[in-house]
Amino acid sequence: MYDFDIAATQWINAWSGKSAVLDAAMIWVSAIGVPLMILGVAGQWWLQVDKRHTRHVLVATGMAFLLGLAVNQIVLLFVHRMRPYDNGLTHLLISRSADFSFPSDHATASFAIALTFLLYGMRRGYIFLAAALIVTLSRVYVGTHYVSDVVGGAVTALIAVIAVRAIYREDTRIDRFITGIL
Question: Which residues are in the Phosphatidic acid phosphatase type 2/haloperoxidase domain (predicted)?
Fold first, then answer.
C-alpha cells in the first residue's frame, strides 16, 4: 500500500511545473479553496428556502468542521509523518509547512463541509464535494501531501460528520435557539 501511495502522489505531483497556468490555478485553489467553501456555507444563513433546516445543516457543518480539525490535532500528536517534499518525493510549489503531513487539514475541512451537506440531503453538497475533490487534489499537486494524507483527512471528516449528526439533533430546544438567531 505504501508503494501505491508514493506512486499515486508522484504521478499527481509530476504534472506540476509543466504548465504555468495549471500551476497558478492549483496554487490558488490550495490557498483559498477552503476559505471560499466557508464563505459559501456562511452565505447561506440568510436564505429563505427551508430556513430552519438549512440553518441546522449550516450549524452542523461548522461543528463537523471544527471537530474534524480538533481530531486532526490529536492525531498529529501521535503520527509524525514527514511531508513528501522532505522525503524528496515531490516538487514543492508553495511554502514549506511547519507541521506534519498526516492527516490533511485541507481535506478534513473541505470534506466536512461536503459530507455534512450530503448527509442531510442538500443537493448543494455535490458542488461542495466537487470543490473538496479539487482542493485535495491541489494539495497533492503542489507537493505538500501524500494521497493517503488527503484520504486520511476525508476519513477524519466523515467520522466528525457522523458524530455531529448523532449528537446535534434537529428541532431540539438548543437547535431552535441557534437557528433562530438573526
Answer: 56-165
Contact predicate 84/143, CB 8 Å? yes
For residue 100, what is the domain's CATH number? 1.20.144.10
Concatenating the DSSP letter of every residue in 82-106 gives PPTTTTT-S---SPPPSS--SS-HH
* pLDDT score, position 182: 61
* pLDDT of amino acid 87: 87
Closest CA to 69 of 155, 134, 156: 156
Q: Which domain holds residue 55?
A: 2-179
Domain total of the chain: 1
In this prediction the pTM is 0.91
Model confidence pLDDT, tens digit, residues 101-141:
899 999 999 999 999 999 999 999 999 999 999 999 999 99
Q: Residues 58-80: pLDDT tens digits? A: 999 999 999 999 999 999 999 99
User: What are the b/e assignments for 14-40, b being 16+ CB within 10 Å?
Assistant: eebeeeeeebeebbebbeebbeebbee
Q: Per 3-state DSSP, what percentage of the chain is helix, strand, and coil (rounded to 5)?
A: 70, 0, 30
For 15, the grid coordinates are 504534472
Q: How many CB atoms lie within 10 A of CB 84?
A: 24
